[in-house]
């Protein structure tokens, strides 16, 4: 009886140790779940390529802001058409306008200093592309925090912790089974097998994988709260488009400071009232009022156009948001499918354990 009991317990120990540790730890959990699904599919393909490169750098910085706003609207309409043609040629003499206004004012200050140096180089290239996209989002968030810390530390540690419990149960079987009879051994072996199987399947798969990992942390915290709410809605649409671009740039700086303060007061009062005669003063002043009104109406039209660009940008972000929701939904469906497959493999392994144990007994 002792020899039979010892041989049977050795078979159970061999089956439990070899099959559970080798098959479950190496093949299914670490290789399939960590390496293939999470690191490659989710981090690399969806987040870095789609979100950072395609949407933000190409569409927003290059196409919309530099080309449309700086080149077309400001340089062509404002500098060339209104100031040079209408104001200089019609109202005052050619020499004064050509020398002072065209060269010094338009070329040096507006085109070179304002558009090229401040807006294109400093704002678009340096701050947005380099600092925000490359440094903060790709390097810090994806590589350091998600792949290294979360996948390696938490998941592999949890797997080995549960496997240590299983190994401890297997090692306790030798001590327990050598001191009992055959009937007691048969009863205890079934209890330990059921306990190990139910503990691994229930505790590991259900509690840790479904609730903690998939539902709570990844879907709710990562996708919904951080990416959608904080990044898209609060920072990009509200702060950048509404507050900075429309209010600060168009209203405060261009309309108030540039046109009304500098052009009407300094240019009209000093040059026109001093240089021209009293008989021409009324006509010239009326002409300058017409030009000023035309400039103001052009600014209102330009402001409305910029509102249309902002509305188009908002609709583009809503469309991109819906597309990203489809990608997130597809990722969730893929995780549920992978989880169902892993549950089938786990159920099959546990049934194989019970079957081999029954055959061994």
Q: Could you characterize the architecture of this molecule?
A:
This protein has 361 residues and is mainly α. The protein has a domain at 311-361. Helices cover 97% and strands 0% of the residues. The protein has four helices and no strands. The chain has helices spanning 2-91, 94-177, 182-275, 278-360. α1 packs antiparallel against α4 (278-360) and α2 (94-177) runs antiparallel to α3. The radius of gyration is 36 Å and the shape is rod-shaped. The chain crosses the membrane at residues 28-48, 60-84, 90-115, 136-165, 185-205, 217-246, 258-277, 289-313, 325-348. Keywords: Membrane, Transmembrane, Transmembrane helix.
* Poorly predicted runs: 19-182, 198-338
How would you state the average pLDDT, rounded?
Answer: 45
| Silhouette | rod-shaped
Structural class: mainly alpha
Strand content: under 5%
Describe the largest sheet: none
Keywords: Membrane, Transmembrane, Transmembrane helix
Transmembrane segments: 28-48, 60-84, 90-115, 136-165, 185-205, 217-246, 258-277, 289-313, 325-348
Topology:
Layout (H helix, E strand, L loop, with lengths): L1 H90 L2 H84 L4 H94 L2 H83 L1
Helix pairs in contact: 1-2, 1-4, 2-3, 3-4
Based on the model shown, name its key terms.
single chain; 361 residues; mainly alpha; 4 helices
């Amino acid at each position: 009886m002792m020899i039979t009991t010892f041989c049977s317990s050795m078979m159970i120990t061999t089956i439990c140790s070899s099959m559970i540790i080798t098959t479950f730890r190496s093949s299914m959990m670490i290789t399939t779940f960590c390496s293939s699904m999470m690191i490659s599919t989710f981090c690399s393909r969806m987040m870095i390529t789609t979100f950072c490169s395609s949407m933000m750098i190409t569409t927003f910085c290059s196409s919309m802001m530099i080309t449309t706003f700086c080149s077309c609207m400001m340089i062509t309409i404002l500098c060339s058409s209104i100031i040079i043609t209408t104001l200089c040629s019609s109202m005052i003499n050619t020499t004064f306008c050509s020398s002072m206004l065209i060269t010094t004012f338009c070329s040096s200050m507006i085109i070179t200093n304002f558009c090229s140096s401040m807006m294109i180089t400093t704002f678009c290239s340096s701050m947005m592309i380099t600092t925000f996209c490359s440094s903060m989002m790709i390097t810090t968030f994806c590589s350091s925090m998600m792949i290294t810390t979360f996948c390696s530390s938490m998941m592999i540690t949890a797997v080995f912790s549960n496997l240590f419990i299983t190994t401890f149960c297997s090692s306790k079987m030798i001590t327990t089974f050598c001191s009992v009879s055959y009937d007691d051994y048969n009863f205890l072996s079934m209890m330990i097998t059921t306990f190990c199987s139910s503990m691994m399947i229930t505790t590991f798969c259900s509690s840790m994988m479904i609730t903690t990992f998939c539902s709570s942390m990844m879907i709710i915290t990562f996708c919904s709260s951080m990416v959608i709410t904080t990044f898209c809605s609060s920072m990009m649409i509200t702060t950048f488009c509404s507050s900075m671009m429309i209010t600060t740039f168009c209203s405060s700086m261009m309309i108030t400071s540039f046109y009304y303060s500098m052009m009407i007061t300094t240019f009209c009062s000093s040059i026109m009232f001093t240089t021209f005669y009293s008989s021409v003063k009324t006509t010239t002043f009326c002409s300058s009022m017409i030009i000023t009104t035309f400039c103001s109406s052009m600014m209102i039209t330009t402001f409305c156009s910029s509102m249309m660009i902002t509305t188009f940008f908002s609709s583009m972000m809503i469309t991109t948001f819906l597309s990203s929701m489809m990608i997130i939904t597809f990722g969730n469906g893929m995780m549920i499918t992978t989880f169902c497959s892993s549950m089938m493999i786990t159920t099959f392994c546990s049934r194989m354990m019970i079957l081999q144990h029954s055959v061994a007994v």
